[in-house]
Structure formats: C-alpha cells, structure tokens
Structures
1.
Amino acid sequence: MIQRKIYTTILALLFVQLISAQAVFRSAQDSTAYLDSLRKEIDWLLDSLVKPKNYIDISLGVSNGYFVQKTSNNVGATTGAAYYNLSASYYHKSGLGITGSALAIGASPGLNVFQTSISPSFDYIKAKNWNYGISFTRYFNKQDLSFYVSPLVKEWYAYTTYKGGWLRTTLALDYATGTQEELTQVTRPVRVRNNRGGFDTARVTQTFQTNTSISDFSIFLSTQHRFQLGNLFSEEDRFSITPSLFSVAGTQRYGTNMQSSALAFGPRYANNQLLGTQSAVTRSAFRVQNISLSIRAEYLYKKWYIQPSFLVDYTLPSASRQWNMIVNLTTGLTF
C-alpha cells in the first residue's frame, strides 16, 4: 500500500521515544522509523490503476539515519549511518497488492539485513474523489543486533484520501503491537554461614527477566499538492515536486511482567530461590506527537524513476531528540 509508507516508521520512532521517557526499556530513538516514511509515493502509478492496470515495482533506496547502540547498562550513544531499503511490490488492477521489503545497514563485510517485512494490502481508488485502503504488515527483526529497533512487529493500517480538490488530504488509522524481552544477570560474592559455625564465600547470581507487551494506536492527518511540471526531455518522461505536511497523534499501552530469582553456589552450599514477580500496566495520554514537513521530487522516464526526498520532523516535548532531518534517494523500475 503506497499511501501507508509515509507513516509507518514515524510510528516506530514515536514509540521508542516514549518508551525511553517511560524507562520501560531504553531504546531511545529508532531512526529506521524514517526510512520507510521516505520511500516512494508515486501518485501517478497509484492513480493509474483506475484504468485498470497491473504492475510490479522494484526499488532501492538509501537514507541517512540515527540509531542507539546497545550497552551493558542499556544506555548507548546515538550514531548516524546510511540505511538501505530494497522493496518489491505487486499491484493487481482489482486493488489487491503485496509488498516485501528488507532494511540493511553497512557492515564489515557487506550489508547487515536487520529487518524484513511482508505486507498484503487492498486499495480502492475507482471513486472519483476518494481513495480507500487497508493493509497488514508483519515485521521480522534480526536477533542479537548491536543497536535497537522498534519492537512493534504487527501493524494494521487503514486510510481514506480526498483527492477532489487542489490539496490531497489523507486521514489514516494505525494500530501496532509487539513484545520486548530482556534478561539481566548480576553476580556478586556474599558470605554465608556453614554448618561448622563459620562462614563460606558464595557467589550469588540474581536474574531479572522482564517481558513487555506493547500496543500503539495512532491517527495521521496529512495534506499535500503535487506540482506537475510537465515533460522535461521527451514525451515519455514526467517530473513533479510534492510538498507534504502531516501530523501524528496517538497513545501507547505497556504491560510489564518482571520475575526475579537468585542462584547461589559455594563450598558445600547451593540454593536457588524465586524472589518474586511484579506486573504493571502503563498507558500514555492521547496527544499530538509529531509535526512533519517533507518535499519530494519525482522523475519518471518510461519504466525507470528516481525520487529524492527531504523531511524535517519535530517531535513535541518529552522526546530525547526533537528535531530530525532525513534525506532519502530512491530509484526503481515499474513494469
């Protein structure tokens, strides 16, 4: 679903920022949130389905981004790096579609593919002034990464777009869920009394296992206008510039269960004890979270296109990083 791509990972960025503030777990910012939001939105391809038309789209994008490194104390430095997004989509003239994508970051040697996803969708765009669509996306995150990614792995999305005026306005609803598991162990020496009346030194290992379930509900409102500048070099090319303004409001829910235990070993001594279990549920208030402005240029020649994009995002107070600026370049083939 092309329309969904402008929102999906902004949702992930909002989620990890709020989690950092709540201290449920310190993932701070997951800037891959912006990678998907800057993927192509080739409006003339979507609109062309009215004819109707089947098409396949294959693209490769690169974007700057920021991510937080994992450390032993869960507080890591934010570093910048380039991200790559390989995407393949099939859209049927009936409105059904399916998209598969992979996100990767440069590693030695080669690329580290840290997230893949699959997304079936349906778009109804045959009405004169309105488009409608729904989609479901399942994300698959690589384990044992050195940096944080969003724990939201199941996403349901629905939108409606009014396209009858000078501005193209979209209202979208997004619901996403996921889980986060953390295991922390601390070992220290303690003195324990033995059966001879003296003391032995034992090593006690305390284990804390935390399971967190997350759900996120967001509402997106965007408006944009595409300035079609006509053919540049031939009758078979098209060029346009599209500024977009959009805002995100939402609420999050976290359910946390923590279980702690202690295991002690020493000379003639062993003990395994369950210390206790704690559970808590936290809900954030529904509020406006982001305001963003993007400018996207699109050049299409026959089956090939290139799309540079620039996005400026302001996260409302309480986030650790309020201003984000992302540059993206995507190129691909449509046939």
2.
Amino acid sequence: MNGDFTSIKSVLDQWARNAKKYFFRYRKGFYELFIAADSPQIMIRNFEQMPLVKHKREAQIIQTENLFLRVAIYYNELNPQLFLLLTDSFYKKNVLDIMLYDSRVNAEYYFLSLKTISHEVKDSSTMVNGTRFSSDTWALSKPGGSKNIVHFKNSTELFYTIYFTQAWLDDCIEKCDERTHRFFQAFQASDSTFFMLPRQVSVELPDYAAFRQRMTETKAPSTEALYESTLLLFQEFSRNIPDDMLLKNNLTLSNESRIKLLKAENYLSKYYTLEFPGIDTIANHAGMSPTALKTGFQQLFGCTVFQYHRKQKMQIAKSILQNQKETIIKDLAHQLGYDNAAKFAAAFKAETGLLPSEVNDN
C-alpha cells in the first residue's frame, strides 16, 4: 500500500513539474517563468514545445515573442562535454526565470554565463541623451544548482553561456593559472551551488563580439572557431575572479538577498546621470533595510552603493568625452550633478586615472 502511494505521488509530482513549464505566476513584482534545466538539450526541447515558438533546426535558432519578452536563442553542441548558447532578448516585463530539475535525471552540466545588459540614457533635454553603456554579470552554477535568474523590464540582454561537464572543466583549468585553480577548489568545496560576479564595462570586448558573430552566422560556424571563442570567454572569467575575501562573502549570500540586491542595482541604474538617490530610498525600493543593503551590496559588488553609482556615472562621462569631442567639460559636469568642473575632474580621475580633458583631447 505504501509503495502504491509512493508511486502515485511520484507520478503526480512529475505531472506538476511538466505542467509548470507551460504556466507562469506573478509574485513580488516579477512574472515567474518555469524552465526545465536538467541539461541544455532538455532546455532546448522544452523551449520548442512552448506556444508561439519558431525553431529553425538546421540553423539551430529558436525565436519567440510573447507578453513577457522577445528572444532569439542560438545553440551549438560542440561535443558531448560542451554545449553553447547565445541568447539575445528584450524584456517587456520584470521576469524571474525559475529553473526546474527532475530528481530522476542526473544533472551533469555546469554552466558559466556572461550577461551583458545594454542601457541607453533617455533625457532629451541634456547632452547625455542617447548615451549607451553596458553592465556585465558573470554567473557560474554547479550541475543542478541554478535556481533563479532575474530580468528587468525594458532591458536588452545578451547571454553568452557555456555548458560543460566535470571532465571538460578539469581539462580546462589545467591550462589556467593558480588563481583559477584556487577559485574552483573553493567553489566546489563550498555549500553554495551558484556564484555571481557583477562586472561593469563601457564597451563590448572583442572576444565577446567574436563569440556572438560565430554563433549567429547564417552558415554553420567552424567548430574550431567556436571552441576558440569559448576558451577566450572562460579565460576572461578567470581574469575577473575576485580575491578570496570577496569570493567568501559572495558565496554566503542567499538567493533571496541576491535578487533584492539586483533589484536595488537596477533601480540605481536610473540615477547614473543624476544625483545619488540615497541609501534609504534604494533600500525601500528593494524591500530591505538600509543596513542589509549596505552590507549585501558590498558583498556582491565589492564596493559601496555610492562607489558603484560613481563608477557607472564616470563610465557614462567617459563614453561622452570619447564620442562627442565638442563636449564642454564644465557643461558635462553640471549635467552629471557636479557643482563645478574641478569636483567632476577629481571624481573622474579617481575612477579612470585620467583627467576629462585627456580623454576629450585624444
């Protein structure tokens, strides 16, 4: 009798898990979408079974547009140990991807992803209007370890994702430096199944561009070229691995705290060309206490909230100075909330190591 009950419960659990993939719910400001994530192959099969999806199998592209997003997914299985995804998407709503795992399936793929979010300043009354900049976030998950991925309304995102087995990882890190060895030893020994490393850049780096170009070519891309781009991406992650203290702090963050901190960072992004909105305002928007915000932000981003705000503001200023040579520095300082050009120049040099005039003249 007990065995029959267990069998029925297993069938019902499986039915509920399969049904979830085709439904969504709204909770705490996010539309929650459920994704079968046991392996990249299962994920692709799950996507192609969803409504309004076009799957071009020969070109290895999946496309859809619905209430929540517009997306194109390019994929390539280089070998049984290595699977690549490039996801190009625009989000119409706040979305939380919830990964589903089947306990009967042995999840064996790690994944390493780089999410690049493109921002555009929209303020028609100022010289910063139309300025574009990006923010990058690395994510690394153990097999079966990723739980939630956050996307915000009106964000344009590129996801470069490498799925790989333990055998491929062991072979790859043998070619990397001692720092990379220490990181993966610490990560694998930790209770954490997921690691996130925000990294801010002002322009897309050449190796990312090559990865994108090779994945989106109309003709079948060269396996050798794609493998080369994969290694470059892995090595770029290795170069950005934090020091041991930041790693330790990052791994102790709960998934719920991480989502709230990303919500705070997204809110802060609206103020990069304005005055700092204040800790209390940001904390209230993220649904956490000011103390929790300050502590958690330092853990996740490796700097204070104000330092992060200034860093991004200076990246925007640098982009304007490089691309708009007619810019009057005094006017730019005022547009970015500084009382005078001297204070702006001091902040700019502290962040970039250069004076605004040195960037503007070159």
